Amino acid sequence: MRALRMMLRKNQMSLLEVKDLKVRVEEREILHGLSLTVNPGQVHAIMGPNGSGKSTLSHVIAGKPGYEVTGGQILFKGEDLLEMAPNERAAKGVFLAFQYPVEIPGVTTWNFLHAALNAQRKARGEDEISSPAFLKKVREVAKSLNIPQDMLKRGVNVGFSGGEKKRNEILQMALFEPAVCILDEMDSGLDIDALRIAADGVNALRSPERAMVVITHYQRLLNYIVPDVVHVMSKGRVVKSGGKELALELEESGYAQFEDAA
Amino acid sequence: MNVVAKTETGRALGDAFTAVRDRLPGKGKIVDQRQQAFEAYERSGLPHRRIEDWKYTDLRALMREVLPLAPAPDAAALDRATAAIELRAIDGVRRLVLVDGAFAADLSDLGSLEKGLSVRPLREVLDAGDAALSAQAIASDIANPMIALNGAMATDGVVVDIADGTVLTRPLHIVHVASGTAPVAMFTRSLLRLGRDAGVTLVESYLAGEGAKAYQTHDGLIVSIGDNARLDHVRLVEDSVDAFNISSATVSLGAHAHFNTFGLTSGGHVSRYQLTVTCAGEGSKVETNGVNLINGKQHADTTLFMDHAVPHCASREIFRAVVDDRAHSVFQGRIIVRPDAQKTDAKMMTRALLLSDDAEADNKPELEIFADDVTCGHGATTGALDESLLFYMRARGLPEKEAQALLIQAFVGEAIETIVSDALREVAIATAQRWLEARA
Questions:
Q1: CB A141 within 8 A of CB A171
Q2: Most buried residue, A32, A258, B193, B372, by CB count within 10 Å?
Q3: Which residues of chain B does A111 touch, with a Cβ-Cβ cutoff of 8 Å?
């Protein structure tokens, strides 16, 4: 049994592979050959100073327009992610929790989530989920994240506080059950209580099949979401990788040393 | 008289009037009224872009041919009309049908009229020679060339009277159908009079029967709302995309009267709707809202003239245009506050959403204020769909067209929500939905 499990693990394909990725925005190269391999069950943290390209990486993985990939590739379960539209990536199981979730007036959270979930299911050839079944599912998830019912009736993120917007991102993450979650600066704009609620929500979604990539400027978040691997990014490259202790090291010595290294 | 240079179309319209005038309903005085209206039209001819009000809708350039007056519908025409009506049937309404510009009694619900409600075909009223009514039907607003032409040529319509104190729960639904017999022109004129304390909901639909393509609808509605009376009005233009729809509504409100109107235009090749609302009694309230959903080479113009003639009246306008491909949307809203109309509260907001680089929207809000103690404001915006919202929605799994559809629904929703009746709001939402689905 044990041998079998070992064998399975060996043969398991990595979930997300970024290989020598080069990205430009308006003639300026932001990522200069970035590589990253994320396996199922792992939580990776990507740390780095402002302008190191952390958010660019998350946007390119999710398929945001406006970025030009000039080299390298991104594979998701062995498939070329860069060939897919953002909605196809979502249906395959890639989820980006936005640093600044947008407000969509006139589209209720409830309608939006239902339409998005059904679009994903349809893309995967699954049956659509009925309104009652969806309602039940959303209610359960919302309750666990301490999200009041009336938030679901309001326009998406309209009038939400910073903490509510982030919780709404995690609600969606829980609902869509993605294989890879990219969390872009989840801690920005959150006080310590809001951060703890959000982190608890994320931790509840950790599983042996699911991987997470936590992008953050500060070590603080990693006290709540403890990573398996920590990468330091500087000037568009990963300049150092290590265990969770690397984050603590950074907290003490800062990013300056790596800026020189890059 | 004929000092204005005329296009061929303009001349042909003159010939058309001369040719048919003896066959138009009404004798004696009515003939003179028609002649008067026609001469008023002739003074300017087909409006063109050098006339300020028609700057964006140059009928001389757009209307290239004059179509013959529609013949009375035969059995086959009535069958095609019936099929078109059934497709867009609204539950619980009293339907009054005009096929090819002629009142179709057999397709209309004329049974068990409520007490205080009277419905007569205009043709009958004109043939009976009611001088006062015909003057109103034929000779109103003849300073406006297209309204004058409509009056001169009007063949039929419905004349509805709602007596003092009569509040109808069953909405009236005037359906205009082009049966598709041949490319024809229709000229209709309807009158609605609400007495004191009366109330009704009026729906107007413009539909095309199977095969109806390049027809021309000219329609006019004249409404008087008595003191303390209320009219809720929903207008749906779903003409063929090759058709012309040149329509007007002239509405006058008594004291403490209330007029709520919503118009949705998704059909028609060229449509122009001229809505003139006059607050003639103190304390009256007006809400005029509308949505254009157009694509291809459609041209849709809503021109509103809101006249605050007396004090203590309020008006609100919410207008939304969604314009795709090479379509052209026009919204002109002019609010005039007369010197005596103190304490007027008037606000107008118009927004356009352009879905393609070739789409065009012209928003022209105008305020003319001659009183000093008023609250008035207007705003206009034009823009594209927000890319950051679209990306967020796509990142959650929604294909681009679906994400756009949700944003467009939200955009027009604010105007559609102003429809008071739940059932009619659903009809408007379904109409918008059809447009979005046809796009996807």
A1: yes
A2: A258
A3: 406
- Closest-CA residue to B26 (of B115, B133, B160): B133
Partner residue opposite B402 with nearest CB, options A63, A96, A119: A119
For residue A253, what pLDDT is reported? 83
pLDDT band at A154 (very low <50, low <70, confident <90, very high): very high
Nearest residue in A to B412, CA atom: A106
Q: What letter represents residue B380's amino acid? A: A
> In Å, how far are B175, B192, B379 from B114, measured between CA atoms?
20, 16, 43
The complex scores an ipTM of 0.94
Q: Report the alpha-carbon distance of residue A93 to residue A79 in Å, rounded.
A: 12
Q: Place domain A2-261 in its CATH homologous superfamily.
A: P-loop containing nucleotide triphosphate hydrolases (3.40.50.300)
Q: What type of residue sits at position B26?
A: G
B384-408 per-position pLDDT tens digit:
999 999 999 999 999 999 999 999 9
Return the domain boundaries, chain B.
69-385
Instruction: Give me B111's structure tokens.
Output: 């049974």
CA angle B302, B303, B308 (to 5 degrees): 135
Place of tokens 């395959």: A92
B260: three-class secondary structure by DSSP: strand
Read off the tokens for B417: 């929500």
Q: SS3 of A108, please? A: strand
Write out pLDDT tens, residues A223-241. 999 999 999 999 999 999 9
Q: Map residue B258 onto helix, strand or coil.
A: strand
> What is the token pair recorded at A174?
């829980």
Report helix, strand or coil for A91.
helix
Closest CA to B54 of B240, B235, B303, B352: B303
CB contact under 8 A, B396 and A116: yes
Query: Strand locations in B153-268, DSSP E?
Result: 158-162, 172-178, 185-194, 199-208, 216-225, 230-237, 244-253, 258-265
Separation CA B257–CA B193 (nearest Å): 13
| Residue B124 DSSP one-character state | H
pLDDT score of A1: 47
CB B269 within 8 A of CB B297: yes
Q: Are A190 and A165 in contact (CB under 8 A)?
A: no
Report the C-alpha gap between B43 and B48 in whole angstroms.
Answer: 13
How far apart, in Å, do the first and last CA atoms of chain B sit?
Answer: 52
For residues B26 and B179, give the distance between their C-alpha atoms in angstroms, rounded to a whole number: 25
